[in-house]
User: Fold these one by one.
Assistant:
Number 1:
Amino acid sequence: MNIILLGPPGAGKGTQAKMLVDEQNMTQLSTGDMLRAARSSGTEMGKKVAAVMDRGELVTDEIVIGLIEEQLTMERDTAGFIFDGFPRTLAQADALANLLEKVGQKLDGVIEMRVDDQALTRRITGRYSCGNCGAVYHDETRPAPNGVCEVCNSTAMKRRADDTEEALRTRLMAYYKETAPLIGYYYAKKQLETINGLGEIAEVKERIANAMTP
Ligand code: AMP
């Protein structure tokens, strides 16, 4: 089953995708993670996108479509793909449909995670993660006990450079301008399920599971 998790920054797409990976053997394809990996390994492309990402703007369609194409054509044993943070523009949505067709796959559904802007700001400005395993924490709602990761015991915590209030404003604007039109696009294709993204992680997880049940 191949699904898109659609929603603004801080909606919880990455957190929920990681649980689907752990529990259902699905594969998370996060363009944000791929771009951050390219940055930290210092590739030419990583250098090119760094400033754009830190400002909270979108990188070009060409780059992210190329990244997704590379991943989709890799052989792997998976129960399906979870697209997290992709597509973010109508051009990316069209490209995804073509790429899936090319590899003999199809999109089974799009889950829109709705969260109001106030909650997004609280979530984003307090969040940090384990630099070793990627487990996600939050200053108020889920602090790492004594700064130690509960999953792997690492103390290497990190915050994203674009998780500031200023970059978040730009990211939200990009979402409403470029990505929100995808809600209408997938609704018209009868592929959209909208869920409430507020609440406990487990509650949201259950809503996603229900939305994924045909
Ligand atoms: P994310 O981790 O999904 O919040 O993405 C972090 C940043 O990476 C975004 O603010 C963009 O600068 C860039 N990015 C990630 N995915 C895309 C995409 N599909 N299209 C354009 N830019 C993206």
Note: The CA atoms of residues 98 and 106 lie 9 Å apart.
Number 2:
Amino acid sequence: MMTAIEQYPDGMMLARAAAVRVIALAGEAIGAHGCFTIAMAGGNTPRALCRLLAHPSCSEQVDWQQVHVFWGDERCVPPDNADSNYRMAAETLLTHVPVSHGNIHRMRGELSPPEAAREYEAELRAFFTGDAFPRFDLVLLGLGGDAHTASLFPETDALHETRRWTVANTVPQLQSWRLTLTVPAINSAKAVIFLVEGENKAQAVHDVLCGPWDPCHLPAQLITPTDGDLFWMLDTPAAGLLPPGG
Ligand code: 6PG
């Protein structure tokens, strides 16, 4: 287990470094146990990474038939909605690579939130049979300016969930529901990557990594893989408030 804090000059260099790491983790996982399970992040930051992974220079390095795609969180909207995290991944990556349709495990945001969460947890438990929590090969996460990650928002109920793998989380800040993996479900991963870009995230990065323990207001502090590696992959602006050396 290790924690690495890495800084890259700009968004493109960050995306390139993340693509190299995803390709390496995929090759290791497929070589070790015949498949690669990745939980995708939502939002906009992963777009550059997804587009890069869809480019032949990257996509030809991945055995997509052995890749299973999950999500770390989803908005409570249909898959064709502009806010859908599934739609973002489909448009930038999944429709451009030969991943098997049956290996795309979408959170069904079009269902009632509690029903969608129950259904997704059942799908995870059927896939990761026998595990106390889902042992993803990689969970890809973003970071909000309020230090939320996935849909684990400050002062929301999901932060306190210790048994479930997936929950519906009501987010007053957004006046909406979200679907999200829980903290223990994320922390059971073999590898977690925080992919964070932009000066607008610098304060949150600083507070999470250097500030006092305050997970209710800084939920990303809760992400500490129990038996896995944690990579903070930052562009220089996002790392701007970290002390020299990270
Ligand atoms: C989502 C997320 C969320 C996201 C952060 C950063 O569904 O929005 O999963 O946790 O990663 O809000 O979003 P940006 O990458 O758009 O800044």
Note: The CA atoms of residues 35 and 66 lie 5 Å apart.
